[in-house]
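Trying the structure run again after the queue cleared.
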Amino acid sequence: MSEFRTGFVSILGLPNAGKSTLVNALLGEKIAAVSGLPQTTRDRINAILTGDDHQIVLVDLPGLVGATDKLNEALRRNVIEGLEGVDCVVHLVDATMSDPVGADARAIVSALSTPVVFVVSKTDAVPEGFSIESFAKSHDIDLSRYAAAMAVSSAKGAGLAELVAELRSRMPEGPPLYDPDDLTDRDLRFLSAEIVREKVFHLTHQEIPYSTAVAIDDFKERAHGKWYVAASIHVERDSQKGVVIGKGGAMLKRISQAARSDIEKLCGVPVYLELHVKVTKNWRKNDARLREFGYRRKK
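Done. Tokens:
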């Protein structure tokens, strides 16, 4: 039997490159928030992929963004810190983007001493006959900088087994760090908040998703009856609160129903979900609020 290998892999990419979708596809479970909008992932999430001869901890980083406000500044710092101390980095790019890498990511990759695997995602959305070499040439990507180059489709499952094999080969020998049944190092409170925020991303529009933070106010696990989860959806303006609540509370009801269904799947028990919408003005520009919502480390 081959030796057991354990290690950490960070996933770097632009917003909406498909990082969270890839993580969920590799695990076969929904761990990371997924949306058709960029910047869905805002915090580092460690997903634990365990096989017969490996345990690979996938670090799902936020999308690489410029520091346009304190929130984006915190997200960028999370990305840079998340690239430190890992055994391998996956540089994930979207096959459908006109500029799938960006100058910032090029500079970061060039400075890394850690092995970097170049992975092109969403290949199911491009014409047949896709070639990594042609793709790299057309986008001025130097594949010689990378330890390996691969193409995957998270939606179709294509290339995922080959990617796991490549990552495993770059992990050091060692015992598993987590229980084989664990899928993430995050607790149910955090994952429930991510589910609620994902539903806001899916169901609202315009500037609402980017002005939203979700905090779990109460989480009661009960031996009998439904578990109780209370969460607050924080927005920055009164007008945004009105959109999230909707006419007669219709939008908030849709968010609650969709989130409750996923939280029940996550917890494996019936859940009573209570949502409130609060106006927390300019929270994206407030250091204390960013720490409260988990986007900056508490001092």
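The radius of gyration is 20 Å. Worth checking whether this holds up in the mutant runs.
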